[in-house]
Amino acid sequence: MVANLIDDEPEEAYAYSRIALRLASRVAAVREAAGFAAYATQRYTEALAEFRAARRMTGSVELWPVMADCERGLGRPERAMAMAGEPEVLKLDKAGQVEMRMVAAGARRDMGQIDAAIVTLQGPELASNSVQPWTARLRYAYADALLTAGREAEAREWFAKAIEADKDGLTDASDRLAQLDGVDFVDALDEEGEEREESGEPAAEAETVVKDDVDVADEDSSGVKPVEGDKD
């Protein structure tokens, strides 16, 4: 139930995870699921405790990146950066190392070190033309960091590259690129519905309109959803 609900109903997922903990707190998978449910609802202290418990039970380092991101969520980016330099990172698989790189970049941004964040994201994984499960999120994080640094032309290029790799719609790269082009997608029901309510007419069915010349919204990369992470 936690797995089924966590994306769309995170609070419900969290409630189920608390029940699971009462029934089987000595099962590592239960502790891990409870950690992700707490993480999804921004209960970072609880999430970190559950992830640590799961790690003690299994001896695995695969939760290291999300544990570091919890430190970011708790306002401790320096601790997340320290974790990025620990020996555990070398034991991660490629996906885990890329995830750790994105968390470290997010920590750099938290500390106001945007140029360092950009450099942190650079590497062979970013330059590769091969599309992996993490490619879209990595390119998105890089584009967002470039945009924050005021490098709009480069940001546009990397948002476009993120779209090419994002077959499953993991990011909102297409929306961000549209915003850079000066367009936004607005639900007509929000505007026309209010007008019709004032005039006493029934609201029209929802439709999509395009509005020009809107400002570009600044968003945090890490996340892409934490582990979309982009607290990534």
List strands and helices in order, with pairings.
Blueprint: H1 2-5, H2 10-24, H3 28-40, H4 44-58, H5 64-73, H6 77-84, H7 94-110, H8 114-121, H9 124-127, H10 135-148, H11 152-165, H12 173-180, E1 183-187, H13 188-199, E2 208-212
Antiparallel strand pairs: 1-2
Structure description:
- Helix content is 61%, strand content 4%.
- With 232 residues, the chain is mainly α.
- It has a two-stranded antiparallel sheet.
Summarize it.
The protein has 232 residues and is mainly alpha-helical. The protein is built from 13 helices and 2 strands, in the order H-H-H-H-H-H-H-H-H-H-H-H-E-H-E. Helix 3 packs antiparallel against helix 4.
> Number of DSSP strands?
2
Distance between the termini: 24 Å
Could you name the ranges where pLDDT drops below 50 across 5 or more consecutive residues? 203-232
Number of helices: 13
Neighbour order of strands in the largest sheet: 1-2
Shape estimate: globular
- Percent helix, as a range, is 55-70%
List keywords for this structure.
disordered C terminus, 61% helix, two-stranded antiparallel sheet, 232 residues, mainly alpha
